[in-house]
Amino acid sequence: MNRFPLLLTTVFLALPLQAQEDEFQTVITPAFSPVTWERLVNAESEPENWMMYSGTLDSQRYSRLDQINTGNVTELEMKWSYQIPVIDRAETVPTVVDGIMFITEAPSNLTAVDARTGRVYWRYDHELPEDLRICCGRNNRGVAILGETLFMSTLDAHLVAIDARTGNVLWDVEVADYEAGYSKTAAPLIVKDKVVTGIAGGEFGIRGFIDAYDPVTGDLEWRTYAIPGPGEPGNESWSGDSWKTGGAATWITGSYDPDLNLIYWGTGNPGPDWNGDVRLGDNLYSDSALALDGDTGEIAWHFQFTPHDVHDYDSIQVPILADIEYQGSTRKVMMWANRNAFFYTIDRETGEFLEGKAYASQTWAQGLDPNGRPIRVPGMAPTYEGILVSPPIVGATNWYSPGYSQQTGLFYVTSFDGEQEFFKRDEDYEEGERFTGGGGRYNQPMDAFHSSIRAINPATAEIEWEFPIMPRSSAGITTTAGGIVFTGSADGYFFALDAASGEELWHISLGARVHAAPMTYAIDGEQFVTIASGNVVYTFGLKDD
Amino acid sequence: MGNLTTQLRHLATVAFSGLLLATSNSLAEDAGNLYNTNFDINAGLKYFERQCSRCHGFDAKGNDETGAPDLTGRLSRASSEVGIFNIIRTGIPGTAMLPVAADLPDAQVWQLVAYISSLSTDPANIDLPGLVANGARLFTNKGDCSSCHMIDGQGGRQGPDLSRVGERRSPEELLSDMLNPHADVAPRWWTMRVTDRDGVVREGLRMNEDSFSLRIMDIDANLWSYPKNQIASFERLETSTMPSYTQTLSDSEVDDLVAYLFSLRKEN
User: Fold this and answer.
1) Burial, A19: exposed, middle or buried (Cβ in 10 Å; 0-12, 13-18, 19+)?
2) What is the ipTM of this complex?
3) N or C terminus: which one in chain A shows less Cβ crowding within 10 Å?
4) Nearest C-alpha of chain A: how many angstroms from B185?
5) Does A312 participate in catalysis according to the annotation?
6) What is the pTM of this model?
7) Which residues of A touch B72 (CB under 8 A)?
8) Chain B 111-170, CB below 8 Å of chain A: which residues?
9) Which domains does chain B have, with CATH numbers?
10) All domains of chain A, ordered by start, with CATH?
11) What is the 3-state secondary structure (H, E, C) of chain B?
12) How much of chain A is in helix, strand and coil states, percent to nearest 5?
């Protein structure tokens, strides 16, 4: 073989790449440098960047930026807005690296913009089949980044690797068969040299799992099923073959503790959602927190919040990790405000239950036993005729991110006090068809219920303060070293509260429902805060002098 | 859904099925839905509960959060059963309304159409005891409804516009509205009582309330907007300002009003 042409090809390929890199850099924007695992582990120490869905691996959503603070937050003004071209609702939390912002869009698209101006570098439009199986809208919530590669979930249950500089596809793998009811909406999580990602489809009788992929090749490294197979511990908690179609989807992003080398991930409802007759038992590991070995995916421990759930109380909340003072000593804990209306503080080394109390209205449990297992109120399971239960199907909270402030030591959650009639139906499983076994109906207008932002002390599980808003908010929360809690509302406000007192500091009407969580970043020493509302991404900063 | 309406709907279904049997050699597009028996409606209900209720609600009343519309009244995207069929079959591009599985038989789609059609009442199939003309007179005269409600631009502003009320309320619901006005009050018609920082109290219909502000219309139709953080307090009265007609109108007069209100539709 003649080696000459090969050499020439290499040279010609390299030239345009170099030119592109030079073009990518601007005078005012720092050079985009690869996101190493070390940078991700230490993300807290470069608060000018927001390098993953929850900001840091512990998912506190706490930023050390304090230029915008309780004293000047009233001086915020809009710096730019970006209109997402495909009309739908935006649940995205943008990622910012060195002045470049990556915004995921409905249905499964991705755009890179200049984080200072909101103007576009590139777009990636993911081609989707027309016969998607999705339960709850066309959403995507964010990306993960490692090196110079972005990783995104898509509604057809693929995981796509995209070049951060160009938007070019590097690889595109099928995680599961969308025609069998699988889909993907959540941002993946980078754990060392792997892309860890979950799966959606809990309303289609899937069998949930958590996967890890090689970031370079897209090869599957390990898969841990959220429902144990025959012979594995926990499989006996499903009657008959119900484990095969038991749901336990893993549809929101987890967290990671580098010191313990444990991945923490929530699991969703058992299927069918509202008819437990066909899946007797605790239905492990549905509605649970799983702690997985960071290298092998092996389950180190589990904590099931709602054994044998019949109300669709997914434990699809982002686990917040922190070291707190608890009964005289420092404990490594995981904090969790669950869809089932109870707040939990759990030892994240062992899975031991430490504290737990209801943080929102609920009628299904008398309380928690010493191990954190709910003591059920008899007769609250769905019926053919309908039975009124609180919280409703959407839960006391849901997938939207809670926050934690290192300044106050408080945990913040968007909560809902509502109720709903739950119905049970008999359904046979058919692949790719909905498998829910019932549904729900509100018996009052939404305005008759209550939403609020609640601050909870994780050492006691007591509510420290609450700020009422109109129901039903599905906005996430971000806290900052400026003493602020940023969040949004169902009626289209973006607002700031004092993290210590809950006092209102600032609000602005953006006009459309906030389904997303805020994030904050800085460029050249200027702090910005970004929120998606309706179909638009807005960025705010302090007024120019 | 109560007994009166259910009975009315069953009657309508039977009448309509008879018509279809007589013209069963027509094209489906001409004759409408050939799968329209109670059996079909029930089959459609089952399919709806399983496949559609997550977005449209178990009661098909829609969901603001998902953007799925209320299917129990007039449908904005389909004016006929064929139109409903086509939306179910092909979905609405660019929205979360996905098409049904391609291999779902037409017969099952028609059963779903039959169920959705059963949620609204076709006035042609309803024989109400009251007289429309009498009801129209009562509306402006003895009933004094027009002092609060508008019809086609004429009337007051203290209650809902009723120009097309027949499209969204069944005769049974209209009857309940008149006899038990506090039973089912939409939040738009609650009353807000606002006390400002000077102690001045102002009351009005709850035009809109959000997390940080509220807007009301007082009895003189003045519009007021308040930031919540700049008033002393506010109170919601989740009752209706409408009087009950139990004492003021006879049963037959109420029937006449129901017949009149139910006749109020776009085509009229």
Assistant:
1) exposed
2) 0.87
3) C
4) 9
5) yes
6) 0.90
7) none
8) none
9) 3-125 (1.10.760.10), 132-184+243-262 (1.10.760.10), 187-237 (2.30.30.100)
10) 50-542 (2.140.10.10)
11) CCHHHHHHHHHHHHHHHHHHHHCCCCCHHHHCCCCCCHHHHHHHHHHHHHHCHHHHCCCCCCECCCCECCCCCCCCCCCCHHHHHHHHHHCCCCCCCCCCCCCCCHHHHHHHHHHHHHCCCCHHHCCCCCCHHHHHHHHHCCCCHHHCCEECCEECCCCCCCCCHHHCCCHHHHHHHHHCCCCCCCHHHCEEEEEECCCCEEEEEEEEECCCEEEEECCCCCEEEEEHHHEEEEEEECCCCCCCCCCCCCHHHHHHHHHHHHCCCCCC
12) 10, 40, 55
**A432:B102 CB<8 A:** no
Contact B229/A504, CB-based, under 8 Å?
yes
Q: What would the pLDDT profile of B8-39 be if each residue is shown by its tens digit?
A: 434 434 333 333 333 333 334 545 678 889 99
Selected catalytic residue, list A312, A347, A417, A524 = A312
pLDDT at residue B33 in the model: 77
Using CA atoms, how far apart are residues A306 and A175, in angstroms rounded to an integer? 27
Which of A17 and B235 is assigned the larger pLDDT? B235
* A333: its two tokens: 């804990």
* Pairing state between β A144-146 and B213-217: unpaired
B10 in A contact zone (CB under 8 Å): no
Query: In a mutagenesis test of the B interface, which of A436, A467, A505 is the best target, namely the one with the most B β-carbons within 10 Å?
Result: A436
Give chain A's length.
545
State yes or no: cis peptide before A472, omega within 30 of 0: yes
Hey, are the CB atoms on A470 and B51 less than 8 Å from each other?
Answer: no
Contact status of B49 with chain A (Cβ, < 8 Å):
yes
